[in-house]
Amino acid sequence: GNAPPGVDPEAFSWFQTVDTDHSGFISVKELKQALVNNNWSSFNDETCLLMINMFDKTRSGRIDVYGFSALLRFIQQWRSLFQQYDRDQSGSISFTELQQAFSQMGYSLSPQFSQLLLARYAQHSPNPNPSIQLDRFIHICMQLQSLTDAFREKDAAMAGNARLSYEDFLTMVVTRML
A GO term (biological process) for this protein (predicted)? Predict the structure, then answer.
């Protein structure tokens, strides 16, 4: 069939392939089967869920062809950014590259915090120099942006610090975890 109005024909074609149960929607499981990193590993479950939730306008846990088309554009923009920050063209983002990416995105984060993120999100391997794939890069950046927005709501003076109660902090984190 033909692509619906406003949907790229290539995205429509891929939607039909990814929609393995022919429901007219893409689930987290179907999305995970369709997306791969540069090292051919599947996208992480958490990242797929985060992205489905971002483009799921009905809050049904799945996306239609319009949401899928928007998601593909979103991933392509992140892939371009990822490739820009992957300076050595290794297909993954190293500690140094992550630090540079954060700096260029306007975040002033300590090396210790970047190391913590790498330890949390890198694929576990015997490699002494951990790195992250595209899916985890997207995940980190989306969460960082969301939590930064929440923090800025509390830091009206843009001083880089805010006073808040423990419950305010928990509310801020829970409501921003997409």
Answer: COPII vesicle coating
- Structural fold of domain 90-177: Recoverin; domain 1 (1.10.238)
Domains 1-85 and 90-177 alike in fold = yes
The superfamily CATH assigns to domain 1-85 is: EF-hand (1.10.238.10)
Instruction: Name 62's bridge partners.
Output: 27
Q: Provide the 10 A C-beta neighbour count for residue 140.
A: 21
Q: What is the pLDDT of residue 146?
A: 85
Domain boundaries of the chain, sorted by first residue:
1-85, 90-177
Residue 21 DSSP label: T
CB 37 within 8 A of CB 135: yes
Q: Would the pTM count as exceeding 0.85?
A: no
**Residues present in the chain in total:** 178
**Which residues fall within 8 angstroms of residue 3, CB to CB, at 6 or more apart?**
9, 11, 12, 13, 65
Residue 1 per-residue DSSP state: -
